Amino acid sequence: MPDKPNAKGLWLRLIRLIGVIVPSRLRSGWRQEWEAELRYREQQLADWHKLNSKTKLDLVVHSLGAFRDALWMQTYRLEDDMFQDMRYGWRMLLKRPSFTLLAVFILALGIGGSTSIFSAVNPVLFKSLPYPHPERIVSIWDLAPNGSHLDGTFGTYSELLERNRTLESIAVLKRWQPTMTGNFDPELLEGQMVTASYFQVLGQSPVLGRNFDPSENRVNAERVVILSNKLWRRHFNGDPTIIGRQILLDESNYTVVGVMSPMFENVISQQGEVWAPIQYDMSQPRSWGHHLQIVARLLPGVSEKQARNDLSLIAESPIPEFARPPWAALKQGLIVNSLQDDITSSVKPALLAVLGAVLLVLIIACVNVTNLLLARGAQRRGEFAVRSALGAGRSRLIRQMLAESSLLAVVGGALGMAFAELGVAALVALSPPGLPRLDAIRVDGSVLAFGLIVTAFIGLAIGVVPAVYASGRDVQSELRHSSRRTSGGHLLTRRTLVVAEVALALVLLVSAGLLMRSLQRLFAINPGFDSSNMLTMQVQTSAARVDTDVINRFFAEALQAVREVPGVSGAAFTTQLPLSGDYNEYGVRFESESATDSDVGYPAFRYSVSPGYFETMGIPLRRGRLLDAHDRGDAPLAAVISESFARQLDVDPIGKRIHVGPTDRPWYTIVGVVGDVKQMSLAASQTDAVYVTPDQWPFADNARSLVVRSDPDAAALVAGVRKAVWSVDKDKPIGRVAMMSDLLSASAAERRFAMILFEAFGLVALVLAAAGIYGVLSGSVAERTNEIGVRLALGAQSLDILGLILRQGAALTLSGVGIGLLGSWAVTRLLAKLLYSISATDPVTFVGIALLLTLVALIACYIPAQRAARVDPLTALRVD
C-alpha cells in the first residue's frame, strides 16, 4: 500500500527521537535496555508489511508511551538540575555574606525606587480615568486671543447643548465652597455647582438615592444636594435615612437626594465633597461670564477630531437664538481636549522626568551588581574550571550563574517592595499641591506586577554577562593559571561597565544641578510683596446673603476687630490672595481706546481690597495714591493698577478712565500705580492687575482672604485672630490658614518635587558610581599583586605605583564624564519645561557637576591606589 512507507518512516523517526531526547544521565544507567528496545522497534518497522493490524496498533501505542516517558524524564532532570542550581547558588551566596548583602541592598534601592515612582506615575499618566469609556470624556475651553485656555460661559454651554451633533452629554461646573452649620462648629466644605448632566458625563450614579433631575437646574427650583461618601460618614455616621433629609448650607436648606459610592473618584476636583445644581438663567449677566468649566461625553464612535470640527463650525457660525456678547463671541474658536490630558498636563513633565531619573538609577544599580558578579566570577575561575573538567557543560555553568543572579534579584526585589511602601509614603508627603489622583497612589496589584517584572528582568540582566564569561573559559588554561588573574576581555568588560555608570551618574547629577539652580533663580524673583511675618486665612460668608452692604459691613467690622488684637501691626482683606490659587480675571478697557470688533479688552486680575492692603502686603506705590477710607460707595469710583498694566498706555495713566468687566458699568478713574505682584506663580509672567475697594464693586465677594502682619511672630496670632473674627459672627468659617512664606514656597512645589527626587537619585548614582570605580580598581590591585611586587622589586617607587593606579582610575572617570556630558546635553533638553531662567545646557552647571563627579571618583581611586603603593614586594612575589 502506498501509505505504508510513510507510516514506517514516521514511526522510525519517532523512535530515534526518543533515543535523542532521553537524558544522558538516565540513559547511562539504562543504556543496554534502551538500545535493545530501539533495535526491537526498528526490527518491527523493518517487518511492517508482515505485521497485522493489532501488532501495528501495539507498536504505535508503545512508541507513544516511550516518547511520553522520555519527555517526563527530561522534565524531571531539568527540574532536578534547577533545584540543585538554586540550592548550590544559595550556599555560595551565604558563604560571602558581605558580597550578598551589598548586592541585595543595591538591587533593593533600584527596584524599590523604580516601583515607588511607578506607583505615582501609573494612575496619573498610564491608567485610564476611573469612569466607563474614559476616552470619550473631553474638556471644552474658549480660546483666548493670546492662545491660552479660557473658562467657558453658561451661554456657550447652552448653545453647544442645542446645536452639537457629536456629544452624548455636556455639563458645566464651578467651584462651590458652602458653609455647613448645625449642631457642630461651622465647616467650610469644598464642592461644585454642576448641571444635572454632570454625573451622566462621568458615567456615575449615587450609591444611595438618585441623580439630579434637569428640572432642578431652573432658577428658583428646589435646592437639592448630593454628598460624597466621606462627608456622609464623617458627619452623618453613614445613616441611610439621610436621603430626603435637609441640611443647612450657606444658611439655606438643601434636601439630600443622593450619596456617591466610596469608589467614586472626582478627578476634576479631588477635594469635592458636595454637589448641587447650578441654577443659571440666560437673562442673567453672569451667564456670559468666563468662570465655568465645560466637560462632555462624546457619542460612541466619535473621535476628538470630529468633535473639534463640529464645535469649531458652531463657533464660526453664530445664530440669532444665541446672541453672544463681544467678550464671549468665540471668534478664536474652541479647544477640545481629552479630560485625561487636561488634568495631567501640568504635572506630566515632572513625573516623566522623575520616571526617567529612577530608571537611570535602576540601570546604574544593575551595572553595579553586574560588576560585582564579574569580580566574584573572577575569583571563582578555578572552581568553574574544576567543574568543567568533571563534566559540567557550558549550559550548566550558565544556568548556575543565572540561578545565583536570580536569587539575588528575588531577595533584592522582596526588600525593594518594602522600600517601595516607604517610598510611596514619602512621595505622597512630597507631592506638589494639585497632583491629580493622589488618593490612587498606592502599592496595588499593577505596581506589584511591575515590581515582579522588573525583578525577573534584572535577574536575567545582571547574570547574563557573568554567566557567559564564567562558561567560556578554556579548562586547561584556567587550571594552569592563578585564580587571581583576570583575562583582558573580562577586565575590559568591567571597566566598560564602570564608564557607563559614571556617564549615567553624570546625567542624573547635571539634571539635579539644573533644577537646583533653576529653583534658586525662581526664589530670587521678587514676588512684589513682603512675605515675612505675614499670616493669611480665608474668611467665608454666606452666598445666600445677596445684600452687598451686609457682607461688606461684616468684613469691615471683622477687620477692625483683628486690628485690635495685640501684636497685629497691619491687617487687610483681599478677594484674591497672591500665590494661593485664587483666580479672578476681568477684561479691562481704557477709555482712550477705540471700540474694536470684539471689545474684550485686556485680561487683568481683579482685586477688591480694603484700605491698608498695600501697606500690609508691602506692595510699593509707584505713582499717584493708594486706595483709602475715602473710597466709599458714594465717592467717585477709583482704581489702582499694576505697573505692568500701566505700560499698556504710552502716557501717564493717572486720571485715565477704565471699564472693568462689562462696558455698561460705570467708569473707574485710575488714581495710582503700584508694583507688580505674582498672582498665580513665581514663574508666571502675567502681572496685569486692577484694584478697587469692596464698597465700589457692584457684586458681593463672599469669600475673602485676611492678611495680618506682625513684627515678632505672626504664626502665634492664629488663635487671637480667629477669636476676633468670630467675635463679630461665630458662624463664619475660617479656612486655609497659612503663613505667606509657606505659600511662596508652595508655589514652586512642582519644581521642588522634581528637584528633591533628582537630588536623591543623583546622590545614589554618585555613590554607586564611586563604589563601581573603587570595586574595579580594588579588584585590579588584588589581581595584579604579583605584577606590582615585580615592579617594586625592580626598583619602582611607591609613588610610581600610586600614580599608575590613579591614572587607571582617572582614565575610567574621564571617559565616563566625557560620554556623560554628551548624554546630558541630549537628555536635559527634556527638562526645559521644569526650568526657569536657565538654559538646559547651562555651561556652569555642566562644568561644575563634571568637576564634582571627577573629584569624588578620584577619592574612590585613591584608596585602592594607596593600598597598592604599600604592597610588600616579598609578600607579593609569594602570592599565587
Question: In angstroms, what is the radius of gyration?
Answer: 38 Å
Query: Proportion of β residues?
Result: 5-15%
Distance between the ends: 74 Å
Mean pLDDT, to the nearest integer, reads 80
Strand tally: 24
How would you describe the overall organization of this protein?
The model is unreliable at 1-5, 20-31 and 594-598 (pLDDT under 50). The chain is an alpha+beta fold and 880 residues long. The radius of gyration is 38 Å and the shape is globular. Strands 1, 2, 3, 4, 5, 6, 7, 8, 9, 10, 11, 12 and 13 form a 13-stranded mixed β-sheet that branches. Helices cover 51% and strands 14% of the residues. Strand 20 (657-660) and strand 21 (668-674) form a beta hairpin. The chain is built from 26 helices and 24 strands.
Give structural attributes.
880 residues, 13-stranded mixed sheet, alpha+beta, 26 helices, single chain
Give the SSE map:
Layout: H1 4-21, H2 24-29, H3 31-46, H4 53-95, H5 97-126, E1 137-143, E2 149-150, H6 154-163, E3 167-176, E4 179-182, E5 184-188, E6 191-194, H7 198-202, E7 208-209, E8 224-227, H8 229-236, E9 246-249, E10 252-259, E11 274-277, E12 293-298, H9 304-316, E13 334-338, H10 339-344, H11 348-379, H12 381-389, H13 394-430, H14 445-471, H15 475-480, H16 488-523, E14 534-540, H17 548-563, E15 570-574, E16 585-590, E17 602-608, H18 613-617, E18 621-624, E19 638-642, H19 643-646, E20 657-660, E21 668-674, E22 689-692, E23 703-709, H20 718-728, E24 734-739, H21 740-746, H22 749-783, H23 785-793, H24 798-827, H25 843-869, H26 873-878
Helix pairs in contact: 1-3, 1-4, 4-13, 5-11, 5-13, 5-14, 11-14, 11-16, 11-22, 13-14, 16-22, 16-24, 16-25, 17-20, 22-25, 24-25
